[in-house]
Amino acid sequence: MRLNAITLILLSILSTPLHAQLKLDLEGGVVFGTNYNKVRIPNAGGTTVNLAHELAINPKAFYRIRAAYVLGERHTISALFAPLTVKYNGSLGRDVNFNDQLFPAQQPLDVFYKFNSYRLTYRYDFVYKARWRVGAGLTAKIRDADVRFKNESLDTHFDNIGFVPLINFYASYKPSYHWTLILEGDALGAKAGRAEDIFAGVAYQVSPKIGIKLGYRVVEGGADVEDVYNFNWINYASAGLLISL
Length: 245
Known about the structure:
By secondary structure, this protein is mainly beta. It has one domain (19-244): OMPT-like (Lipocalin), CATH 2.40.128. Helix content is 7%, strand content 70%. It is built from two helices and 15 strands. The chain has helices at 2-14, 51-54, and strands spanning 20-40, 49-50, 56-57, 60-71, 75-82, 85-90, 96-98, 101-103, 109-128, 132-150, 155-173, 179-190, 193-205, 210-224, 229-244. It has a ten-stranded antiparallel β-barrel with strand order 1-4-5-9-10-11-12-13-14-15. The protein has a two-stranded antiparallel sheet with strand order 7-8. A hairpin with a 4-residue loop joins strand 14 (210-224) and strand 15. The longest helix is centred in the N-terminal third of the chain and has 13 residues, at 2-14. It is elongated and about 60 Å long. The two termini are 36 Å apart.
């Protein structure tokens, strides 16, 4: 079944008239906070800590870079680099077992939470009209995560690199030449966890080659597996530059 689906995609692309365009989406902004970030490492025997509620977080700048190649208007192949590290600090009201190290209560603590993402996406726009564009596809994501607890005497971390398949979706409505409403993202849920990365916003076309976008992004999800339990919700205020080459 997977081979047949890939074959159909390749045949569809190869039969498309030769018309290609390179696009860049350069996004940045501020992470204002996390609604929750629950960590328990190891999953069996570790202490559950909700970093967002038990520690403080300062606003954090972020950036993301996406390069997309559009073939025949309906086929889009894109690559995304989305690094992110946020820092929590404060003290916990109880002793915490993290990564088999005991962090005593009421001691100053820094927690560094890294969640880098590398993605390759194929999308097909099955609706392609003057005002509306709607599409869906598949995303292959590499997750590079690391959680580090550090106080005056202890410093330990747990890193995790893994592959995550996601469903990609895109919808836009263009009421005028200059303005476009956008909803796009990657998402999928399974028994062991889930992942959602969704952007909702508006774009303004400055010129035929340059556009700007403003909006809200949310990253939510996590995993409950043998080694680690972690679920988070991260809020972004984002702006971007859209470039057509």
